[in-house]
Structure formats: structure tokens, C-alpha cells
Amino acid sequence: MRTAACLDHMAPYLFARIDAKRDALRAQGVDVISLGIGDPDQPTPDHIVDAMVAAIGDPKNHQYPDYAGSAAYRAACASWMEHRFGVEVDPQREVLALIGSKEGIAHLHTAFVDPGDYVLAPSIGYPVYSGGATLQSANTYFMPMREEDGFLADFSQIPDEVLGRAKIMFLGYPNNPTGACATEEYFDRAIAFCLEHDLLLAHDNAYCDICFDGYRAPSILERPRARECCIEFFSLSKSYNMTGWRIAFACGNERAVSALGTVKNNLDSGQFTAVQDAAIAALTGSQDCVAELCALYERRRDLVVGALRSIGVECNAPKATIYVWAKVPAGETSASFATRLLEKAHVVVTPGSGYGPGGEGYIRISLTTPDDRLLEAAQRMKAAM
Ligand SMILES: *Cc1c(COP(=O)(O)O)cnc(C)c1O
């Protein structure tokens, strides 16, 4: 048999070597602490689980779901957009349920990109932006992301031959992995650029509710003219500790939502309606659980930032997300520093180089480890350095 050529072009799994070392250490009985995984350690709040338990017994939910999402789920998404951002979206035409935002982001390529086309992706970012392009036999142009620009992807230097074949620009703020947040002025420039060059602007807003120090992350749809060119991805994964449930939604430009819906209608049959019912409970219920989660991550952020600075590792305290993005010491690479921390401190961190060509020289530390283990990891790193 012969597999598709595009599979040969998928980026190799850059963390494989560190994972193998971690597994070898664990096999020797070493207590390895992983700060590598961006997966919340806390359980899904009870009222959401209870809603699922009730929904699962309802025979109506046992049949094929509506591929676009139930009317009730899409209405809950629209009402959450209104409450959270003051943005009005039409639940029928401008909202689409997703089986996790990763699914929606990956399928957006199928809806917009032909072989040989380009997508514009940040040079440090979620691997699906470029991976989805590769699966369509399309190309990725990496927009530089520099620390001195606040890690706002620079779209001012894109060659004309790339722009002529570009279809989608991906952005995501608050940003995984850098923790950077966008300004309104930056969003406005990005929207103007995408309108000028006839691009779809796909904004990945998975961390909009994980904010600290009183910061409030915006929706790009709050900006003028965003509705003409933007689709925005929201996920319940991080805000409600629901990564395993696979539930998210996209909203924004009607043509983009409809095109993505056409792909999904032909590829999947939507998320289990009981999961959508649980998500309605999350979006329309008390948001106290989100505030508690933010307080937890904010405390852990301070712990990690303090520990890193005390060993001479430079990092900014992020205003949002569940990650601390730190510079590796002079003379080290992302991989060599991550390897040293693993070998000497038995702590796993993620090499920044795994997030794209701009990530070299950094590591990412995730805040999804219980406080006592995080403290222990910080002490081990101090002792090892
Ligand atoms: C976690 C994450 C998501 C959410 O993915 P789901 O598929 O909804 O779980 C999307 N984008 C980024 C950048 C993320 O880190």
C-alpha cells in the first residue's frame, strides 16, 4: 500500500527524544515531574458533570446529533459571546459546534486551502495551524514572532508570491506557548491586512478566560469590521477543565462558518448531544469555577516565575494562559536546556523549538501540575543549577 505523500511531510515529533529519556528514567524508578503537558490537572466542575449524567439518560440524545450543534448549544454559545464580550452572533448562521477546537482548526484548512496554497502561521504556535496545511498538501509561511514586539506575529514582510497564494492567517492571543496578549491596535492592523489581501483571519481564543492580574482578554469580534473576515475558535477545554470531553465552537463570519460546516457535515456527524448539554451548563451556569481556576493558576504562575528568576532564568509573568515561557541560559539551546533539567532535576519542560522556527532559545513550563509538585520541581531546579 502507499500512504499519501503529505504524511511524509508532517513535521517530526520533536519531543520524542525527551519523552524517551523521561520514560527511561521512570523505568529506573526515578520520580520525574512533568511540567510539559498543557492539560488541566483539576477535575471538571461538579455541576457540569451532573448535567452530563442527566443528559446521558435521555434517549433523545442517543441518536445522531445535528452536525452543526444542537440549537440549544449554539444558542448558549451565542448568549455567552454576548455576556462575555458584548458580541452578538446569530446562533443559526454564525455559530458552529466543534469536537474540540483542534478539530475545527484542522478542518478549516480543508474548507479553505487547496494544494500549493499558503497559510500564514505564527513562527511560535500551536502545531495544528501548519500541520493542517501540510495535510492538504499546502504550505505554511511562518510570520516572525519576536520578544521585542511582545510576540505579536509580524505580517509586514510577507513576500508577494506567498501573499498571492495565501488563504488563512492564524493568530491566537492569549498565546500558547508564549503567554503573550494582543492589543486592540494589533487586532485592527491584522483585520485591515486580511481585508486588503482577501484572507480569512482565524483567531484561536482557547485561553480567553484564563487571565490574571485583572486582565480581561478580548474577542477579535469586538473589533470593527472583524465580521467581514474573521472566524474565532473558543474551547471549553481549558476554562472548565474539559479537555477530555472534546467540545468547542467557532463563530464569526457567516461564509467561513458555513464553509467549515460543509466540511464537517461530510466528515463527522457532530459531538454527542449529551456533551453539548453539559457544555450548556458550563457556559450558562455560574462562572465562579472559572474565577477559582484563574486564582489557582495565578498562584502557580507566581511560584514558577519566582523560582525561575531565582536561578537566573529570564521570563515574563504572563497575564493569561497556563504557561510560562522562559529564555534558556546563554550557551544552551531549547533542547539542551530541557535535557539538562530532565537529567539533573528530573523535571520535564517543553523545548520551545517544538512550537515552530521562532521557538528556539526558549522553554515552556505548564502550570497544570499540583502546587506541591510544582514547588518540588522548583526546588529541584534550584538545586540542579
Ligand atoms: C488547548 C488549545 C486549544 C484547545 O483545543 P481543544 O481541541 O478545544 O481541546 C486550542 N488552541 C490552542 C492554542 C490550545 O493550546
Automatic annotation (TrEMBL):
Its cofactor is pyridoxal 5'-phosphate. It is an enzyme of class 2 (transferase). PROSITE patterns: AA_TRANSFER_CLASS_1. Keywords: Aminotransferase, Transferase. One of its GO terms (molecular function) is pyridoxal phosphate binding. It comes from the Bacteria. InterPro entries: Aminotransferase_I/II_large (IPR004839), LL-DAP_aminotransferase (IPR050881), NHTrfase_class1_PyrdxlP-BS (IPR004838), PyrdxlP-dep_Trfase (IPR015424), PyrdxlP-dep_Trfase_major (IPR015421), PyrdxlP-dep_Trfase_small (IPR015422). Belongs to the class-I pyridoxal-phosphate-dependent aminotransferase family. PANTHER family: AMINO ACID AMINOTRANSFERASE, L-GLUTAMINE--4-(METHYLSULFANYL)-2-OXOBUTANOATE AMINOTRANSFERASE. This is Aminotransferase. It comes from Eggerthella guodeyinii.
